Every structure is written in structure tokens, then in C-alpha cells.
Amino acid sequence: MRINMRIDMSSVVRTTLELPDPLFARLKARAALKQVSLKQLLQDFVEQGLDASGAAASSVRRCAHDLPKLQTPLQQQGVTFSNAGLFELLEP
Asked: Which GO biological process entries does UniProt record here (predicted)?
């Protein structure tokens, strides 16, 4: 997908989206079903996506003590994982 943006004097950003035809057809159908413009539907989707990703990022924190504890090292394709190794992956 390519996005071209231009800012005009009314502080609205105009954007060009290149979408596959089937996706565009689905968007048009959804807009018609909800009786809103395609512009309004896309704006709502973008806002929902940004709100959801911000909430998810702030509420989900990884912590090593939430991991299951391994009784013996786990082997997979020549790589050995241990509790200490998993902890190092989680904690920067």
C-alpha cells in the first residue's frame, strides 16, 4: 500500500490509499451498510485502531515471572532454551 500525504491550510491531511479491489469493495459495502461515507468509515477505523493499539501497549507488560518454568532445558533444532535464557530474551 502506498500513502501520499499533503497538508492544506485547514489542517486536514489528504491521503491517497492504494487498496486491492476486493478490500475496497468490502469497505464500500460496510460504509453503505452503516449509512456513512467512505471517508467517515475510514476515519473511524483509523481512530479505533490507534486507540486500541495505545490501550494494548499500555496494559500489556511482559514479565519473566509470568512465564512457565522449565524443569529441564528445552531443545529445538540445535538451540537450547533455559529459564535464564528466556529471562534474558524478555528483559532488555
From this structure: regulation of DNA-templated transcription
Domain boundaries, the chain: 3-59, 62-92
Alpha-carbon distance 36 to 55, whole Å? 26
Q: Could you tell me the pTM of the whole model?
A: 0.48
Q: What is the 3-state secondary structure (H, E, C) of the chain?
A: CCEEEEECCCCCEEEEECCCHHHHHHHHHHHHHHCCCHHHHHHHHHHHHHHHHHHHHHHCCCCHHHCCCCCCCEEECCEEECHHHHHHHHCC
pLDDT tens track for 33-50? 999 999 999 999 988 888
